[in-house]
Amino acid sequence: MDDSSPLPVCSVLLLAGGRGQRMGGADKGLLSWRGKPLISWLSELVRPLTDDLLISCNRNAEQYAIYADGLVSDDEQDFPGPFAGIRAGMRSARHSHLMVLPCDAPQVDRALLEQLLGQQGARPVVVAQGEFLEPLFALLPCAELGSLERVWQAGERSPQRWLRQLNPLVIQCAEGDPRLANFNTPERLLT
Which residues, including other chains, have CB under 8 Å from residue 147's CB and lie 6 or more apart? Predict the structure, then answer.
């Protein structure tokens, strides 16, 4: 997209509700990379795209609140995974579409977000590397909340399996694309 055409309006959800197991239980979104918390990199990137920036967090709400317009949390206390965060985000979104991004991917760039937004329509848009869908880099029509609720109530906890059922549009990224790198180990934060 060029700068002369406005980007579609969407809600944005940054997922920061995990256990941080690979980080020794630390809250990943609040860990520092290059002098700033991971969550701040994503918040700054998406802020120009939305007036409805949500963060899914299950702890440290006061610290996350400064980066968002609203906070959501899982219904269950046992950290049921990112699909629970997506579910909470879709329930709270104020716009017709919800862009989903993980808090621990500080190298995602505006070009990839514009690719997602450029495909906005009735079908979900998801990034893929080869055959593997990256469901935490997606643009979801909030009209699919009903289908999400149905599969959730049936016990599904994989956003990838749910998205495959919806025949998503796919944005193909190269294997090892650094924009999709998850900074989810202590070693990654040193890069």
Answer: 162, 165, 166
The torsion angles phi and psi of 15, rounded to 5 degrees, stand at -85, 115
Q: Quick check: helix, strand or coil at residue 169?
A: strand
| 105 CA to centre of own chain | 9
Query: CA-CA distance, 125 to 191, in Å (whole number)?
Result: 30
Q: Report the pLDDT value the prediction gives residue 24, as an integer from 0 to 100.
A: 53
- Segments of the chain scoring below 50 in pLDDT: 1-2, 20-21, 23
φ/ψ region of 156 (left if φ > 0, alpha if ψ in -120 to 50, else beta) reads beta
Distance, CA of 35 to CA of 126 (rounded, Å): 30
Residues 136/102, Cβ–Cβ less than 8 Å:
yes
Q: What is the pTM of this model?
A: 0.90
Contact assessment for residue 13 and residue 113, using Cβ atoms and an 8 Å cutoff = no
In CATH terms, is domain 11-190 a member of 3.40.50.720? no
124: closest CA among 179, 180, 170, 174? 170
- 80/6 Cα distance (integer angstroms): 37
Q: Average pLDDT, whole number, for the chain? A: 88
